Amino acid sequence: VALGGRGGINNAPLFEFAEFAINEDLLRTESLLHIHGFRKQPASVSYPVAGYLVAQFLSQKGIEPLLDIYTSYSAGNPNLIDAIHPNHFRFEHYDSPEPAVQLISEIPSETSLLIRDDSSDSQLFADDSFYYFQLRDTTILGTDHIVDAYKSTRFETLLNKPLPVGTHYLITLNESEIAIYDVLTNQLLANYVSSFQPDPRSIKTVCGAYLFKIRRSIFSASFTELYLP
Fold first, then answer.
1. Over the stretch 71-86, which tens digit does the pLDDT of each residue have?
2. I need a labelling partner for 201 at 20 to 30 A (CA). Which of 15, 66, 84, 212 fits?
3. Closest Cα to residue 19, out of 64, 54, 62, 52?
């Protein structure tokens, strides 16, 4: 959870780490299946590896056997769970989902317009899997989820001003990075960093606007407005 694994937000890099650790024999996965062994490991190791084991079990055995195991052992049985022992199934490569943030050259015609802010020439479109953004500068995504008397460390650090009422998400834009923050949890949800790409060039604008899409699953709330901070 501390690494952002809850809700599937950052599962891909966590599982890739676990896959590497197991394949390179960097740890004994059997110890993580024992309640005492699990507690002895740092969370940055135990949670990714345990999640990877469960993901592999689900893909090869299905949900019903996993539910049976969970029902039998969720009361804190300290014994090793033999049914999910790593030797009982093969480890397959974890295929990462599409990147959470991707550049686009245009807004697809099959998307629906959700929000338009004429003052900043900003637009938000959507389909079933992604939100599509046309933005010219750092932007606030407002929601109906209002938290009174809340101060966001992340927001004030980035913009050096108080958090506007109704702010939930912040998107910062420049030629090097597109970053999406949840300012209520002070968490970086996802980003696109140009220097990390196979072709590390600066992020270009299209007619003065940044065009990109963000996977919908990283957001926990729906947007009601879109405006410049």
1. 676 655 555 455 455 5
2. 15
3. 52
Site of tokens 């003065």: 208
User: Tell me, what's the pLDDT at 61?
Assistant: 77
Q: Which residues contact 75 (CB under 8 A, 6 or more apart)?
A: none
Spatial contact of 19 and 29, defined as CB atoms under 8 Å apart: no
pLDDT tens digit sequence for 2-49 = 444 444 445 666 667 777 777 777 766 777 767 677 777 777 777 777
* Residues 6 or more apart in contact with residue 107 via CB below 8 angstroms: 123, 125, 132, 134, 211
| The residue count for the chain | 229
Degrees, nearest 5: CA angle 202-205-209: 145
- What's the CA gap between 227 and 59, in Å, rounded? 42
> Can you tell me the distance from the alpha carbon of 139 to that of 226, in angstroms, rounded to the nearest whole number?
7
* Residue type, position 168, single letter: H
What is the distance between the alpha carbons of residues 150 and 165, in angstroms, rounded to a whole number? 9
pLDDT at 100 over 90: no
Q: With DSSP H G I counted as helix, E B as strand and the rest as coil, what are the percentages for the chain, rounded to 5? A: 35, 25, 45
